[in-house]
Amino acid sequence: MEKVYDVIIVGAGPAGLSAALYAGRAKLSTLVLEGTKVGGQIAITSEVDNYPGSMEDATGPSLTARMVDQAKRFGAEMVSDSVVGTDFKDKVKIVKGEKADYKGRSVIIATGANPRQIGCPGEKELTGKGVSYCATCDADFFEGLEIFVVGGGDTAVEEAIFLAKFARKVTIVHRRDELRAAKYLQEKVFEHPKIEIMWNSVIVDIKGDGLVESAVFHNRETGETTEIKADEDDGTFGIFVLVGYEPVTEVFKGCIDTDESGYIIADSRMRTNVEGVFAAGDVRVKTLRQVVTATADGAIAAVEAEKYLGE
């Protein structure tokens, strides 16, 4: 007879693994599905300094490994399979994978969100080695150094102001001749003594051996290409790509309510518009996307799933 799990968790980042831990400890039969890599965005983070209680030498992979071991210790099953479809109409939900279909009495969606990338050579290779997508996570690694912020919206400008607390100098690299951020944020940037703006420009190449050492900038108006190298005394500089995130929700569209950007709409108890289906972590509409908020979401979702099953 085909197994019906109490909880199916889609995604094995901090939110999904936290949910697995809480569901397992509640003696719920728990399945965690992960399509590509365990750990989500944190898996590519070289150092984790802002998670409460993390050790000084904690890395994304090491923290993830401990989360996985903990979830398994309490009985959670881990399966590598990419979700290609769902059927949430009945009491028993069906999650369709490439390898098999899985049945559960409740589902927690924790598929996360991926940062939009520049798409230039060197970006992938130097991610976590000077290229970052999270100012809150990595700002203190660049204290006293120079930082380039790619973007021109509210998030990029807000984070540029935040990064200026740490950096010697911050340069906003924007592909247009005016910022898209709110006027009050623009005024703060224009008046800030440590922030400059590189207009009509994009980064077309990032270079370095183990760390970012230089970047090539292309001016879209003049056609001029310029390579900027790190100060010899510094040896590196930061490149923060802050042009938004893309939630991993394509497979759930049509059955789960999302906002205009594709993020799943869930209440404070992580409940979606579908009874028995919950959302946790970066995939849902929220103000702060960090490991600590993702794990909190996962815990809440698992506790609410347990209550739902009990009812």
Automatic annotation (TrEMBL):
Its cofactor is FAD. GO terms for cellular component: cytoplasm. InterPro entries: FAD/NAD-bd_sf, FAD/NAD-binding_dom, Ferredoxin-NADP_redctase_2, Pyr_nucl-diS_OxRdtase_2_AS, Thioredox_Rdtase. GO terms for molecular function: thioredoxin-disulfide reductase (NADPH) activity. It holds the Pfam family Pyr_redox_2. Its EC number is 1.8.1.9. It catalyses: [thioredoxin]-dithiol + NADP(+) = [thioredoxin]-disulfide + NADPH + H(+). Gene3D superfamilies: FAD/NAD(P)-binding domain (3.50.50.60). Coiled coil: none annotated. Residues 5-298 form the FAD/NAD(P)-binding domain. One of its GO terms (biological process) is removal of superoxide radicals. Transmembrane segments: none annotated. It is an enzyme of class 1 (oxidoreductase). Homodimer. This is Thioredoxin reductase.
